[in-house]
Amino acid sequence: MAPAGSACRGLSANAAQRPQGKNNGKRGDGMNDIWRMIGQRLLLGVLTLFIISVVIFGATELLPGDLARELLGQSATEETLAALREQLGLNDPAPLRYWNWLTGVLQGDFGVSMATQKPISELVGTRLGNTLFLALYAAALSVPLSLLLGVLAALWRNSIFDRASNALALTAISFPEFFVAYILVLWLAQTGIFPSMVRITSATTTGDLLYSAFLPALTLTLVVTAHMMRMTRAAIINLLASPYIEMARLKGMSPMRVVLRHAVPNALAPIINVVALNLAYLITGVVVVEVVFVYPGLGQLMIDAVTNRDIAVVQAIALIFAAAYVLLNLLADVLSTITNPRLMHRK
Amino acid sequence: MTNTMTPRGMTRRGMLKSGMAMTAAGLILPTGMAMAQSEPKKGGVFRIGLGHGSTTDSYDPGLWDQLYVQTFAAARVNYLIEIAADGNLAPELAESWDSTDGATWVFKIREGVSFHSGKPMTPDDVVASLNHHRGDASTSAVKPFFDPVTDIKVDGQNVVVTLNAANADFPYLMSDYHLPILPSAEGKIDPTTTDGTGGYIVESYEPGVQATMNRNPNYWKADRAHFDQIIILTILDPAARLNALMTGEVDLIDQVDPAAIALLESRGVSKILSVSGNAHYVFPMDARTAPFNDNNVRLALKYAFDRQELVDKILAGHGSVANDNPIGPANRYYFAEMEAKTYDPDKAKFHLKEAGMDTLEVTLSAANAAFSGAVDAAVLMSEKAAAAGITINVDRVPDDGYWDNVWMKKPFCASYWGGRPVEDQMFTTAYVSGAEWNESFWSNESFDKLLVAARSELDDTKRREMYQEMQRLVSFEGSTIIPMYNNYVMAVANSVSTPEKISANWNLDGFRCVERWWFA
């Protein structure tokens, strides 16, 4: 928690320097509220994760067939199926298997993949790293781009620039991901500029990876930019009608300064929320892009595990995805509270 | 990865020029192969992109089930016996084999072969490797192979296998991809070992993603395993696979979508290898239930659709018409002269009348999990059958769980077979009464008797007659519609050379492209 705490303090110091944040004496109360909120939300998050694990376990139980059947495929005979089920412990009743799994997880042991007998932490660990890399790469491209476009579109609203960037972003988001990906492959990979697939080995350097993962990152950027950009634009335009903005204009401030200094700080809450939502999407929802660019991320592992009914792996990944949503939402709420002095310093 | 072209001695552009005429003609094997004339050369990194492979793949040979693990295995392990490109048996780790009565088989094990770890390969390793698939606790998919086996023991440099009845084809079973020879300790193999006697040593393996292997410098076969390094990648998306080949990321891909073949050929960066084998697509009918329990109904359905149309439209010509015969042209006793069935609505109506019906309505369950294009094939059949007064309702079912909920559960569905090198294996697996995978539940007394008799018949002419009679029985009285043999369609970079004859026993040259092919 230490890094999160220091980040909060850094940001609240910024907030205090703003024209609106004049009540420095009450800062401690605001931070206490935030810590209380973080504690409550983390507890609720744990409860959410528990419920999700029950739901996922139940859902995989409902799927036809089981791991033994999937491993042996069409060539399964009743005799070998029975032997394999016995070996994998699939003959225990479902509640008992869930209980065994849950007690393992509570002790920090996610267990071994039923199919490969490898520790799940090892199996999921490298994939999680790959997924986070791609998500951060795409975020590093899309967040600054959409914020910039959003602010400029708000500043020059109804101009050619506003209309063109809106139209382009909406076009990109309207195409299905795989279509955007194939178009990029056609333009940028078949012409030899970027590779059409990603290979990650122990010898791959970060530089190589940034180069070879550019197309998937660009695809994701095109898919998420419109949402963030339009939210930024809408939030700022909404504020531009407020009396205090009019006041700022009447003081003779330049439009750019009005937007950056007065409008943006107050528009941060909705922007932070939509950015967090899109970050969570980048972590959990990129299966299609992973498949097209042969990117070894968590999404493909999840699909593999579901088709093979490897429930322990499915559970572990589902928990990671759920945790990503819970934590990013929490982070968004904390940041929007900190950036809003009315919430930080309420009486 | 960027410089992999240079060790091959020829740039891709140079290759293009020299191979221009050939690629323009759209090379189809095995009719002739200009590329094959050069002598095998050593070197290069051979990158394979396969539409198979999953994170649950394992090193346990009893669980191997698809092309990725099969090819990965062919690179790092050897078998007792190899099926040569011409379909005949060739010695591998067994130098020779013999049987006087067909029931006791003696395999003489090759000396001087070592595993990658340096441990010499012994007859004890062979016995342990085979025993992995035997016994009650075995989870191997080929356990039924060993049901008739009563004893496996070491005799000097020999391994002696005793069966409870004669089987002239037993050595063929020893070539099965599930039966590699692995190092053993105390009579057991370690099913998680990466070790083997094969041409490549595993450097890294991430299931469902990639495997990297380096050439085994001490490989006992001097004329095999030509590449310095093999990389096998899982590329599940068909378009991504095509892209990888076209952009030079890989040198070989499998399962080329028939619709993309012309497109790929027009790009000129690769060539199509299309090998006709014994693989076939089937539509089994449950012979126990009405209306399929009447052979006249089954015959009516067999005459009610156009086989050539399916070959043209579903396989884009990369296959051939089958006469409801699971024994293919690459089998020894293939019955080519059998009376062919053509699309004949009148004949179909005649058989319906014989069954006492004017019209027939059946439901055909299909999913592309059975084979690529299964649903389209079912629709084509239904269109043509209408003229014979037969209504086929096509029920499109989900891919997921197809083998659990539909196959061998619904009375009429789609399925596929990879084909088997031996007639007996094919019939025993799927056509004899009560077989575990007898998907049509067909039962025919004279067929069953013939099958047992042919197994121990050592006179070749008599055997041929027996197997041809069995093929006739399956075709005209059986309960399985077999419309076509599908070719193995692969695409390779122009720099890849193959021997003149590519094996029709399984895909990718019997999985052995890794040790039989080379870079020109």
How would you summarize this macromolecular structure in one to three sentences?
The complex is a heterodimer of chains A (347) and B (520). Chain A has 347 residues and is mostly helical.
Commentary on this structure:
The complex is a heterodimer of chains A (347) and B (520). By secondary structure, chain A is an all-alpha fold. Chain A has a domain at 127-344: MetI-like (MetI-like fold, Orthogonal Bundle), CATH 1.10.3720. Chain A contains 16 helices and no strands. The longest helix of chain B has 18 residues, at 460-477.
Task: Map the helices and strands.
The complex is a heterodimer of chains A (347) and B (520).
Chain A: H1 2-17, H2 27-62, H3 67-72, H4 78-88, H5 94-106, H6 120-155, H7 160-174, H8 177-189, H9 206-212, H10 214-240, H11 243-250, H12 255-284, H13 287-292, H14 298-307, H15 311-338, H16 341-344
Helix pairs in contact in A: 2-15, 6-7, 6-10, 6-12, 7-10, 8-10, 10-12, 11-12, 12-15, 14-15
Chain B: H1 12-18, H2 20-25, E1 45-50, H3 67-76, E2 81-83, E3 89-91, E4 94-98, E5 104-109, H4 123-131, E6 149-155, E7 158-163, H5 170-173, E8 184-185, E9 188-189, E10 200-206, E11 210-215, E12 229-234, H6 238-246, E13 252-253, H7 261-267, E14 270-275, E15 280-284, H8 295-303, H9 307-314, E16 319-321, H10 345-354, E17 360-366, H11 374-385, E18 390-396, H12 402-405, E19 415-417, H13 423-430, H14 445-456, H15 460-477, E20 480-486, E21 488-493, E22 496-497, H16 507-510, H17 513-516, E23 518-519
Parallel strand pairs in B: 1-12, 1-13, 17-18
Antiparallel strand pairs in B: 2-3, 4-5, 5-7, 6-7, 8-9, 10-11, 11-12, 13-21, 14-21, 15-19, 15-20, 16-20, 22-23
